[in-house]
Specification:
It contains 2 helices and 9 strands, in the order ααβββββββββ. With 123 residues, the chain is α+β, with helices and mostly antiparallel strands.
Length: 123
């Protein structure tokens, strides 16, 4: 009986962690900035636009790639609070590992990008 309770508690903790991660998905925390274009086979494609001064709340990306449609300066703040200024150039492509962060447009132009998230186990 004790093992059943322990298994039930573990299952509830796993479900809770999954719901917390899901609630931090960028298109959910910044729905006016991110538009989901496609979401199938473990791959989500989104278009995003950050107007000058605009920022997204803390969110998580699984492994992901960015393609910069219109460049500009973005300040990325990770979950520990460390900041990094990134100068996205138009036409740039970047592949990144899983990350949790906020993003803020600190430039004077709208930054537009395509985000491709891969929600599958690595080979």
């Amino acid at each position: 009986m004790r093992k059943c309770y322990l298994l039930l508690i573990c299952a509830l903790l796993i479900i809770s962690a999954q719901q917390k991660t899901a609630s931090q998905e960028v298109y959910k925390v910044a729905p006016t900035m991110y538009k989901v274009l496609s979401d199938t086979l473990g791959i989500r494609v989104m278009e995003a636009a950050y107007k000058p001064g605009e920022s997204s709340a803390m969110h998580v990306h699984p492994d992901f790639a960015l393609y910069i449609l219109e460049g500009g300066k973005i300040e990325i703040t990770n979950k520990e609070g460390a900041k990094q200024l990134v100068d996205f150039k138009t036409g740039m492509g970047i592949v990144l590992p899983t990350d949790t962060h906020t993003a803020r447009n600190v430039g004077t132009t709208t930054v537009r990008l395509v985000v491709v998230e891969v929600n599958r186990a690595r080979q």
